[in-house]
Amino acid sequence: MRTRIAQEVHSWLERRFPERRLFIRSNTETRFIRLKSETQLVAWAGGALVVSWTIVATAILLMDSIGAGNFRAQAQRDQMIYEERLRVMSEERDMRAAEAVAAQERFAAALDHASDLQSQLLSEQTRLRELETGIEVIQGTLRRTMGERKAVSETLETLQARLEDGGNGGGGMPMGDEASGTVDLLADALAETAAERDQIAADAEFALNHAAEVELELRLLQEKNDEIFRQLEEAMLVSVEPLENMFRAAGQDPDAMIATVRRGYSGTGGPLTPMSFSTMGGGTDPDAARANAILDRMDQINLYRIAAERAPFDIPVKSSFRFTSGFGMRWGRMHNGTDFAGPVGTPIYSTADGVVTFAGWSSGYGRLIKVQHEFGIETRYAHLNQIRVDVGQRVSRGDRIGDMGNSGRSTGPHLHYEVRVGGTPVNPMTYIRAGQDVF
Q: What is the band of 273 on the pLDDT scale with cuts at 50, 70, 90?
């Protein structure tokens, strides 16, 4: 049975692939190679397999090329979108910065105006006290003069009565030159006293009228002062709340951060010492208290500003970039930072004031920079192409500290950026977003 099947297969192969002979002749002899049907079938199958593999491989390469083109086009579109978002964010940040500068200038002008108004108010209060004292003196003089006039009038009436009695022969004192002189003297004194009384009364009336005008002017000035204070208090509230929210959004305690900054700026007479207004030795002045409260708020804003410069609320890459990996689990492992992809050599900037504690090669990080900031915060900048700072160097927010690269365990040029609080990694975007909402 098997022999018959083999014969039939051989016959079919003979018809399709007849036996062929390949002759090889030399000078002395002639040889040939016989190509059986089975050998030709194997050669044909091998050739067909090679051609098929070539066709399939070519198709795969073409499909990969087309797919890579689409991926590059998508990557370019994504890059354009990120660049546009970055441009918009930069414009918003510049606009917010300009608004903050304008608000600070307005606040300084309003504070100067409030100080001038406070000085005017104190001057007017001093004038009012002087006028009140003068009125009291005038009133005392008027009362004394009225008493003297009354006494002189009574004396004059007594003398006139005695003179009349003497003139009628009533046995009184005879009228003589001495009596006449005394009467004239008393009459002149009475006239002078009356004139003085009238003048004092006129002065008192003028002083009372002027005091009413001064009181009205002071009331208007006080109302204007209150309006200015109210606007300043609202401006302080609007300025402080976003800063407090920024620190809370970053998971920081604003009071603790302010206390830390205040300890470093506790010298007397420094830029953060509040001003005070004199109360001229009197009781507590409500306007001075409100002014000092505003200055305390301004001092708080300055402390927040200093704290913001010492915490990493800035972004380390200012040029065009794209986010390639965020904070969290990645491929079953924890990714402790955020990746910013860009060309090799892209400038890398410090995100806050601090001191460089490490600048060199570190295993998988490649070229690494560590910066220690206030409040127990550390930032790390990894996979750099070049390091531009040294250990122990103090850097400020916005200083260029290195260039983006592809060193260490990296699949392409990018910056691996970490933020650690007390040695524990936290999401850097928490700080970056909090800073963008304010700055």
A: very low
Q: What CATH number labels 315-432?
A: 2.70.70.10
Comparing 122-131, 228-237, 266-275, 352-361, which segment has the lowest mean pLDDT? 266-275
Q: Higher pLDDT residue, 272 or 149?
A: 149
User: pTM for the whole thing?
Assistant: 0.46
> Has residue 170 got a pLDDT over 50?
no
Whether the Cβ atoms of residue 159 and residue 183 lie closer than 8 Å to each other: yes
Residues 25-38, mean pLDDT to the nearest whole number: 74
Domain coordinates of the chain in residue numbers?
2-77, 106-310, 315-432
Q: Which of 420, 389, 292, 406 is nearest to 346 (CA)?
A: 406
Question: Residue 317 has what pLDDT?
Answer: 94
If one compares 392 and 33, the residue with the highest pLDDT of the two is: 392
